[in-house]
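Is NDP placement plausible here? Inputs below.
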Amino acid sequence: MASDDGALRLPLYCPLVVNGEEGKAASGRQFARENPANVREIATLAEEGTQEDARAAIDAARKAFDGNVSNWIYNYKLREQVLSRTARLMRDNADRLARVVSLEVGMPMRQAVPHIGAAADIFEFYAGLAGKLYGESFTLPSGSMINLVKEPVGVVGMITPWNFPLTQTARKVAPALAAGCTVVIKPASYTPAATYELVKLIQQTGIPNGVLNLVPGPGSIVGAEIIASKKVDKISFTGETGTGKRIGAQAGMEVKRVSLELGGKAPYVIFDDADVDAASRAAIFGMFRNAGQACGATTRLLVQEGIHARLMARVVALTRKLEVGHPSKPSTDMGPLISASQEKVVQEFIEYGQAQGFRLLTGGKKLSGEGFDHGYYVEPTIFDGVDNASRLGQEEIFGPVVAVTPFRDEAEAVELANAVDFGLVAGVWSADYPRALRVARKIRAGTVWIWDNYAQPVEGIWGGYKQSGMGRELGYHGLNDFLEVKQIFTDGTGLAMKAPYGQVIKE
Ligand code: NDP
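Reply from A.M.:
I modeled the complex. Tokens:
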């Protein structure tokens, strides 16, 4: 039964998009995505793609690339136009896009709206780079010339997560299109409509048929086919470290290019001389944005002993003021978790923290009562005195549960920050800039924020050390991930017999 969620008519729908045509799955089946804020409601019905559907999409992308459809590979002006029009269309449709993201993810509108702006910024940025794929040229003493030209990597299979569906997709699609690649996207099954809404807009920009294809469906079927296919040149994956390890191993068997954006366990190191209020706000932003369901979420607060009591008093006071509620409500700070299974994982971590005797400073409960009974709502939760070696200090929770661990000095802070398998992001707060910089250099993570948290400018980079991934998204580095470098060597001597040939030919 259709219903309304504000401006949206439910359920939303996600078809397949193959070779510019919207279609149904070969299985004849659809799958339903429930509304995580009210599970009695179906948010989306999506086509349940099959292996056959994935193959058709890969074939379309392959044909578009190998046939250089509409001169896609060389016509940077067309690629620029597609990307800049996408950015404009996203801004024109920002309210609808934000509502769709908010609905499927359970993300508060106050976070979903800037999420759309950030995704549009990514398209705009790469529109500016599409015409700047300069190579290099070098002339040897002999007069021979080396030309290094940049070429698109080919057909890219993209497997995306649900937590920030539009920026995560934009970080892959925009640079891949700027580079001249063709694409098959397998969206997370929790957020098919959000991904489709973006693809639908891109289809309106004049993009040639076959360049961008979408196949919703199970990761184990559609995703697995994309990874296995010899017709796919590169896999760009964002998701859990466990899934990423398997995908990396499989891609390695085919020597397929692969970039992996995986999990995190970010530390935020706060020294005695920090500004208590500013550091508390920065930490809370990282801790509870999108209910902590973020790869770069602040999951470990490492706090120096001298500031510990003052800082935690402020952090707890601010946390208690957070409004947990329906994501569509303008005042909501934190919405529900994505699913029943994620709620169970979060509750198990809370029970574990209590069983270990860590001090529960605030939160710890599933919310119930009016407005909460049909959604996956858990309180923002902070444990103090956490042993960094425990599961709360080591494992990615992907929820609003934070571990606080006090430290004595700089050396211990660095040791604790690095004592995890992950290395995605970190934060440092100290009034002593040389110290903050020193610590930032010693933490093994792809991004370290000083006096800030979770800033992700498109001009910068995103990516992890250690088990947080391989490769970098955003900025120039994000574009390079979708390019091959080819050397074209041209003789400049005009000689029939050149010195090196003498190694084989005597006259
Ligand atoms: P998952 O690894 O469960 O899923 C990610 C994607 O992989 C989904 O599209 C999923 O499909 C697909 N997938 C699952 N199994 C397979 C398979 N066997 N073969 C191919 N594809 C598969 O991660 P989540 O969606 O739960 O995302 C959360 C995780 O992502 C967290 O660990 C988080 O840290 C990480 N992440 C990392 C980021 C980074 O930049 N480093 C950014 C955002 C998230 P389906 O949905 O159908 O199962």
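Short version: The chain has a mean pLDDT of 97.
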